[in-house]
Amino acid sequence: QVQLVESGGGVVQPGRSLRLSCAASGFTFSSYGMHWVRQAPGRGLEWVSVLSNNGGVKYYADSVKGRFTISRDNSKNTLYLQMDSLTVEDSAVYYCAKEVGDYSGFDYWGQGTPVTVSS
Amino acid sequence: QSALTQPASVSGSPGQSITISCTGTSSDVGGYKYVSWYQQHPGKAPKLVIYDVSNRPSGVSNRFSGSKSGNTASLTISGLQPEDEADYYCLSYTSNRIYVFGTGTKVAVL
Predict the structure, then answer these.
(1) What are B37's strand-pairing partners?
(2) Which residues of A touch B98 (CB under 8 A)?
(3) pLDDT tens, B16-33?
(4) For position A69, what pLDDT does the model report?
(5) What residues of A are in the B interface, CB distance below 8 Å?
(6) Residues forming a β-bridge with B64
(7) pLDDT of residue B1
(8) From B36, B45, B50, residue closest to A110, measured CB to CB
(9) A22-50 confidence digits (pLDDT tens)
(10) Which parts of chain B register pLDDT below 70?
(11) Average pLDDT value over all residues in chain A
(12) Which of A47, A52, A63 should be substituted to probe chain B, the one whose Cβ sees the most B Cβ atoms within 10 Å?
């Protein structure tokens, strides 16, 4: 069965960095694009970033462009999100999600990892 | 990229049908067949209920259906059941090659 397990969340001060990981199993990880989505407390879902199956194509939401970096290691079946220059507005639960197919939506999600940016 | 517009709340009685709209522009909803819908219960991860405008993943009840007309996509839940009470979000691919979610709709089963 498909499983996505995020880790790396926590409490961090503004301006600092954090790296999230998403360990995948139960499917051929190297065949699918992967996404990060976040949800601030009491707020809606916000798409953050996508990385193609081979890591060659990546895109970011304007709100994180230049501060966040998405990457993957297909040999370890793991997706990453490097978050730099964090602000309080980045506080959210971060989910990784697997694509159904190119552009088609996300059929599997992790349980989420919470990130709190606070001084 | 602005969030797609959804009604804040929709309600219905058990057994009724409800429809949630998701309005965008020709650069997102209107321009592509890549609209998907997600159900989210409190404290849980979202669950895909519709992809590519009208396709239902295996295991999702056939009470969920999707459609699109112009710049507006719609999710219809027929035969409303208590377990359908949740937040619902649409998502669209965009001409900027990024994705945008809708503002979210809280469905209440009266």
Answers:
(1) B50, B90
(2) 47, 50, 59-61
(3) 999 999 999 999 999 999
(4) 98
(5) 35, 37, 44-47, 50, 59-62, 95, 100, 103-107, 109-112
(6) B77
(7) 78
(8) B45
(9) 999 999 999 999 999 999 999 999 999 99
(10) none
(11) 97
(12) A47
> Taking CB atoms and an 8 Å cutoff, what residues of chain B touch A44?
3, 87, 89, 101-104
CA distance A111 to A102: 23
Cβ of B34 and A62 within 8 Å? no
Given a cut of 90, whether residue A6 has pLDDT beyond it is: yes
Residues of B in contact with A37 (CB under 8 A): 46, 101
Are B32 and B92 a contacting pair, CB within 8 Å?
A: yes
* Contact residues on chain B for A50, CB-CB shorter than 8 A: 98-99
Sole residue written with tokens 């498909």: A2
DSSP letter assigned to residue A55: S
**Rounded to 5, what percent of chain B is helix, strand, coil?**
5, 50, 45
Is it the case that residue A101 has pLDDT exceeding 90?
Answer: no
Percent of chain B with pLDDT over 70: 100
Query: Residue A104: which of B46, B52, B98 has the nearest Cβ?
Result: B52
- What confidence tier does A84 reach under pLDDT thresholds 50, 70, 90? very high
Range A13-38 burial, b when 16+ CB lie within 10 A, else e: eeeeebebbbbbeebebeebbbbbbb
* Token pair in block for residue A42: 């009491």
Tokens of B93: 């691919």
